[in-house]
Amino acid sequence: MALMLFALCFSNVQLQAQQGGQAARSGATTGSSDWAWGIGLASLAVLGTVSGIIAASATESPTTFSHN
User: Greater confidence, 13 or 45?
Assistant: First the structure.
């Protein structure tokens, strides 16, 4: 179950990265490279955050999230 969730989230992250790359590429061709850099960096930040959360939740046992 966790592996399936990880694969689903990873494919979603890849799609977001691809869309960010397309936005950066289109921004560079229209001359608004500052916006393209912002979009690209924001996409990388989202990618890193989501990947980190997924990796952390995959390595932790469910008992560490209980508040007793």
Answer: 45
